[in-house]
Design brief:
globular; alpha/beta; 10 helices; TIM Barrel
Length: about 270
Amino acid sequence: MIDAHQHFWRISRGDYGWMDDSVAAIRRDHLPADLHPLAEKGGIDGTVLVQAAPTVEETLFLLEIADRTPLVRGVVGWIDLEGDVDAQLQRIGHPALRGIRPMLQDIADTAWVLRERVIEGLRKVAARGLRMDALITPRHLPVIDRLARLIPALPIVVDHCAKPVFPITDAWRSGIASLAVHPQIFCKLSGLANECGRDWSADSLRPVADHVIGAFGANRVMWGSDWPVLNLAGNYERWLAVAQQIVAPGDHAKVFGGSATQFYDL
């Protein structure tokens, strides 16, 4: 079993600009010792550790953690795609590095990722055999569709099902369906508790799971905890149990391990 999306952070590093009072409940260090008992109880064999700060320094911090944490099977880092991409990729070159994640949800220009300089950078990312995590909201769905057409060699995974608004809309449904047409795009079944709110349940989240699995197929959908951000709206044990409930038993092997292993080459 693979948790395809989790974070670690050490607050004193000082580059987590998004950690304001609205996330006070998780504004403390979260490190491997905090996750290990949760992963063990859930039967998790490995994780994908994802960046939480837009700095190369944080990526190096995560790669250091991967070196001493067997649970971490891969790291998704960050680079400045408008900077010297070759130099940055050289700096963070590491066997555990599996991809990069520009924090698109925090960039005011919805079409930023389509800028010529960024496209050039992402072509270099793809040429290195790396992938892109798309941290997006529904406004970005047409943009990622265009990106996939421009760089078909770039594997992309949509984080958190593109953070749908609840109740889900026809626009979100059609946007997801458009992305699923591209064979290089996968989707993470993650982050939904936070988007739905504290009253989330299997019944409220099942329409999202049904739609993304119906669109992409279970072989291109992967489960992630989004821990410890998850703790703002729930906990690891409950989200894993609900996810296992809303995903058909015949799809468990793919959604809870196989798809992430394939996409990230774990």
